[in-house]
Amino acid sequence: MEVVLLEKEAFFALFRKVVEHVEANRKDTEDKWIDGAEVMSVLRIKSTTTLQKLRDEGKIRYSQPQKKIILYDRESVMEYIEKHARETF
């Protein structure tokens, strides 16, 4: 068995390099399309009627790959939130 000794600074420099490498190679990105439940959670609405109204008025983008499946564009939902943000004084 070999024992490797490192100075404190060298250990933390090595640790930072490992963290940078792991973060650079991460594959878990957010999905572009999200379901209605997640949209309602992000917008903090409880009514599917309100969600349908936003969809029907063209305020958020959506896709309907099957009759009962409706997916929403995450970026569109975030743009909707930003559009209605108020500046502070």
TrEMBL record:
<dbReference type="Pfam" id="PF12728">
    <property type="entry name" value="HTH_17"/>
</dbReference>
<protein>
    <submittedName>
        <fullName>DNA-binding protein</fullName>
    </submittedName>
</protein>
<dbReference type="GO" id="GO:0003677">
    <property type="term" value="F:DNA binding"/>
</dbReference>
<dbReference type="InterPro" id="IPR041657">
    <property type="entry name" value="HTH_17"/>
</dbReference>
<feature type="domain" description="Helix-turn-helix">
    <location>
        <begin position="37"/>
        <end position="84"/>
    </location>
</feature>
<keyword id="KW-0238">DNA-binding</keyword>
